[in-house]
């Protein structure tokens, strides 16, 4: 049932070229330049006229929501907030008609997320559910939605569900932008083409598995890790840190790379591995300066970079080279090495990566 893999987690990481394809299939037709989303068709108008969008989720799904915030604001020019479901629901948020809530959940059963959307619905908001499990409670409580179609996720740490969420949230943003007229035809077509190419690029990134195992071996005894990124890659840094914590029990923190100098930089010494998600995008030059700041304090830099980059390899201790992609879709590719890194560190330390201690696949208590 593990399909020849040692663990479900590795199997599910390797399934991603297919699961990303499945999440786009039947929706995206790059050749024709069309995008069909059955589950939101009726609400396309409501979505494009939303005063604001609030994304509610927990954990890895919350990280997918953060990427979506950047994408929706960029393409749709609608203000977006991303909320931890547990905080959102208890602080008596200002919600009313004209607000759209997007609930993101793999299981569709996370209690905090479910309760958050139920109370927002009572206040007149429209709920869009992005769930993986068909017929789940959150899917049923939503008026509109789209399934991620990643298939059953058995490994407790979420991997393929995350990239499928990113794919579907990007499609949703494109759909709203097209409806609203806030995107040019060229950019729309360009992003459809980019989305279509993501599966192959993820397959290429998976070829780095052996190299990442070696890097994992080199750093597995570190006490702490820092993960840094900016822009679309900032949530990827958060996700890399969460995966490592869950699977290897190494303390790890994710930060926006520039925020590091406001505190976390105090932790940097020759024993601290710092993982930079530093692919070529609008933020690249700034990230290069952040890498210099770490090197000046003797931190060990492991950088996820784009092929063809000649600057960072001269500075970093280790580089992991991924295919080039538009910055909006890059997170689906740049997260792959971080999933593999967490996996290998956990396995090398002798832990049961499919069932990390203290964690459950779905958190059905508030
Ligand atoms: C991380 C992880 C958790 C879940 C979170 C939300 O690897 O698995 O952080 O992402 O509990 O779960 P869902 O998406 O089912 O609502």
TrEMBL record:
Q: Which domain of life is it from?
A: Bacteria
Task: Name the catalytic site residues.
Answer: 361 (for fru-6p isomerization activity)
Where do the SIS domain residues begin and end?
43-182, 215-356
List cellular component terms (GO): cytosol
Class of the enzyme per the UniProt entry, highest EC level: transferase
For the keyword Transferase, the answer is: yes
Q: Per UniProt, which keywords does this protein have?
A: Aminotransferase, Cytoplasm, Glutamine amidotransferase, Repeat, Transferase
Q: What is its main location?
A: cytoplasm
| The keyword Cytoplasm appears for this protein | yes
Localization of this protein: Cytoplasm
Per its record, the protein catalyses: D-fructose 6-phosphate + L-glutamine = D-glucosamine 6-phosphate + L-glutamate
From its record, what is one biological process in GO terms? amino sugar biosynthetic process
Describe the protein's quaternary organization and the partners it interacts with: Homodimer.
Function, as annotated: Catalyzes the first step in hexosamine metabolism, converting fructose-6P into glucosamine-6P using glutamine as a nitrogen source.
The protein, known as: Glutamine--fructose-6-phosphate aminotransferase [isomerizing]
Species for this entry: Chitinophaga caeni
Give the classification, highest ranks.
Answer: Bacteria, Pseudomonadati, Bacteroidota, Chitinophagia, Chitinophagales
Identify the gene encoding this protein: glmS
Region of the whole protein represented: 247 to 612 of 612
């Amino acid at each position: 049932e593990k399909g020849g893999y040692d663990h479900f987690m590795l199997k599910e990481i390797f399934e991603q070229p297919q699961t990303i394809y499945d999440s786009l299939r039947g929706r995206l037709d790059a050749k024709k330049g069309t995008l069909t989303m059955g589950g939101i068709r009726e609400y396309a108008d409501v979505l494009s006229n939303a005063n604001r969008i609030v994304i509610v989720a927990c954990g890895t799904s919350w990280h997918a929501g953060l990427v979506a915030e950047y994408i929706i604001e960029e393409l749709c020019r609608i203000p977006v907030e991303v909320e931890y479901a547990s905080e959102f629901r208890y602080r008596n948020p200002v919600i009313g008609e004209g607000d759209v809530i997007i609930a993101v959940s793999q299981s569709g059963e996370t209690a905090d997320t479910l309760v958050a959307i139920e109370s927002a619905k009572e206040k007149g908001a429209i709920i869009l559910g992005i769930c993986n499990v068909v017929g789940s409670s959150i899917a049923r409580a939503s008026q509109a939605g789209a399934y991620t179609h990643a298939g059953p996720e058995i490994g407790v740490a979420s991997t393929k569900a995350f990239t499928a969420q990113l794919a579907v949230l990007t499609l949703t943003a494109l759909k709203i932008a097209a409806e609203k007229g806030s995107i040019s035809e060229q950019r729309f077509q360009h992003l459809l083409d980019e989305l279509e190419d993501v599966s192959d690029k993820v397959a290429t990134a998976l070829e780095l598995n052996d190299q990442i195992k070696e890097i994992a071996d080199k750093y597995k005894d570190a006490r702490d890790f820092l993960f840094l990124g900016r822009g679309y890659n900032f949530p990827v840094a958060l996700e890399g840190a969460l995966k490592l914590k869950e699977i290897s029990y190494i303390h790890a923190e994710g930060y926006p790379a520039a925020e590091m100098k406001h505190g976390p930089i105090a932790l940097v010494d020759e024993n601290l591995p710092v993982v930079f998600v530093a692919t070529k995008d609008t933020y690249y030059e700034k990230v290069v300066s952040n890498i210099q700041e770490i090197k000046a304090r003797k931190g060990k830099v492991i950088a996820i970079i784009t092929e063809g980059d000649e600057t960072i390899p001269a500075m970093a201790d280790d580089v992991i080279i991924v295919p080039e992609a538009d910055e909006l879709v890059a997170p689906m590719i740049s997260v792959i090495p971080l999933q593999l890194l967490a996996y290998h560190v956990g396995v090398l330390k002798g832990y049961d990566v499919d069932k990390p201690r203290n964690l459950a696949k779905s958190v059905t208590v508030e």
